[in-house]
Amino acid sequence: MKAACDKHLADLVCNIEDALLVIEYGLEEMAYLLVASCLQVLVRELPRSVYNSNIMKLFCGSEARKRLEIMGHASFTLYYFLSLVAMDEDMKSNTTVMLLERLGECATLAWQKGLAFHQLGCVMLERKEYKDAQRWFEAAVEVGHVYSLTGVARSKYKRGHKYTAYKQASALISEYTPLGWMYQERSLYCVGKERMMDLDTSTELDPTLPFPYKYRAVALVEENKIEEAIVEIDKIIGFKVTPDCLELRAWFSIVKEDYEAALRDIRALLTLEPSYMMYHGKVQGNYLVEVLRRHVQQWSQADCWMQLYDRWSSVDDIGSLAVVHQMLANDPGKSLLRFRQSLLLLRLNCQKAAMRSLRLARNHSSSEHERLVYEGWILYDTGHREEALAKAEKSISMQRSFEAFFLKAYALADTSLDAESSSYVIQLLEEALKCPSDGLRKGQALNNLGSVYVDCEKLDPAADCYVSALNIRHTRAHQGLARVYHLKTQRKNAYDEMTKLIEKARNNASAYEKRSEYCDRDMAKSDLTMATQLDPLRTYPYRYRAAVLMDDRKETEAIAELTKAIAFKPDLQLLHLRAAFFESMGDSIQTVRDCEAALCLDPNHSDTLELYNRSIDRTSDVQQTK
C-alpha cells in the first residue's frame, strides 16, 4: 500500500510548488520514489531554482544533506552538478559556498575531496577571503590535487606575499612537466621582460590561454602600437570569442577612432551577454552603443539586410551578429532574426547564448507552425532527435515552410543514411527550396543538398547544387565543390576552389586545413601551420605533422608534436595516435597509459580497445619472461 501511494504521489508531482509541498512528507516517510520525483522537478528548474530559498534549504543545510543521504539521494554527482550551476550563476553567493561544503561532505575518494576543496578555494578567492582560500587550496593539495598549488600561490600573492608566490610557481614548473598555465601563473608574480618571457612561453605551450594575448595587446597599446594590439587580440578572437576580448578590441578601435569597428564589437558582446557592463563594470554596453551610433552611418532595416547578406557571405560571423543586434533593436520581437542570431552563435561555439536566442525565437513566434520549428531545433540541439522530427512533421502538417522541411532533413541526415533515407532527405531539401525563404537560408539548403548527393556518389547533381549556392553567395559552398573536384580526381581544381574560399573568408582555419588535402606535402604543411596559428584548437594539423614525422622515422619529434596538442586538448584521436606510435616504438607502458586515457573519453572505441588489449598482453609476456 505504501509503495503504491508513493508511486501515485510521485506521478502527481509536476512543478516546483508540488515538489515543495510533498518532499517533506517523502523524507519523513522514507518514500524513495516520491523524493526522487520531487528532486527531478527541482533540478529540472535550474538555474531558476537556485534563487528559491525554500529549495536551497533542502540542499544547503548539513542536516538536509544527511536526510537526503539516508534516502540514497545525496550523492557527490548531485552536489557537484548543483554547485556548478550555483557557481555559474553567482560565484560569490552564500548558496554556492554551502553547496560546495556539502559537496566536500559527500566526497569519499581523494580526487573528489581535492575537487571540492579546490572549488571552495576558488570561491573564497573570488570573495576576497584570501586566508580561507589558501586554507582550502592547501587542503586540496594534501589530498593530491596538484593544480591547487597554483591557488595557494595566488592566495599568498593576494595576501601580499609576492616573492613566496613566485617561488611556489617556480617550484611547480621545476617539479612537474611544464605546462602553459604554469608559466601564465608565474607571470603574475614578476614584471618587465621576465613577465613577457613567461607569457610567451605560456602561449607556446598552450596557445588556447587568452590572458597572454590580452596582456601583450594592452602592452602594445601602451607603446601606441594600436594596429599590432588589434592583431594580437584578433588571434584569440579567431578561435575563442569572449565578451572581455571583444570589449578590449572595441576600446582599441575607439583609440584609433574606428567607431564602426568598436560598435560592431560592442553589439557582438551584447549578443553574448545582454547585460554586460563595460569599463570594469561601470558603463552599460547599451549606453556605449548609443554614444557610438552618433559617429557612424545610420542604416535603415533594408540597409541592414544588405549588410547582413554581405557579412554572412564573407563568413564574418561577428560582423553578422552585430548587424542582427542592430536589427533587433529596431524590431525586438522578430523571431526570424533571433533564429539567425542563434545560428551565428552556434558557429562561434557560444552554445549557451545560442540556446537563449533560440528560446527567444520560440517565445516571439507569430504562429504555431513557426513555434514548433524553433521547439524542434531546441530539442535537436539538446540531443532529442526523434522529438525534433516529430515537431518538424507537426509543423509541416500545419503549413509547408522552408524551415520545417529543413529541420526535418537536417535531423534525418544526422545519421548514417542508406540509399532510401538519402533519397528522402534529398526530397525534403527540394521541398524546402520550393518554399519562400531568403538567399542566406536557401544557400545553406543547397549546400546541404550537395553534401547528400556527394554521399550518394552523385557528383554532377552535387556540383550543380554547390554552383547554385555560390550564385547566391553562399561562400562555404566552395568547400563542397572542392570535394566534388577531388572525388573526380581533379585535384588542381579542388585546390583552386579552396583558394577562392580563403580569399573570400579570410582567417578561416578550416579552409586552410581542408585545402591541405589537395596539395603536395610542403604546401600542406604550410597550410596546416596557418590553420594552427588561426585556430590552435583544431587537432588535425597536429596529427598530420606527427604522421609525417613518423614517416620520416623521427619518432621523438612525432611524439612531441602530439604531446603539444594533448597538453591543452586531450582528444581521443590524438591519444589513440600517440598510443599507436608508442606501440611501434615498443613502449608498451606508455601505450597502455594513452589507451586508458583515450578509453576514459570513449570506453567503446574499438581501435583503442584492440590496441589496449594487445599492449596489455605484451606487457604481461614481458613480465613473465623476467
Automatic annotation (TrEMBL):
Biological process, per Gene Ontology: negative regulation of ethylene-activated signaling pathway
Organism this protein belongs to: Papaver nudicaule (Iceland poppy)
The protein, known as: Ethylene-overproduction protein 1
SMART domains in UniProt: TPR
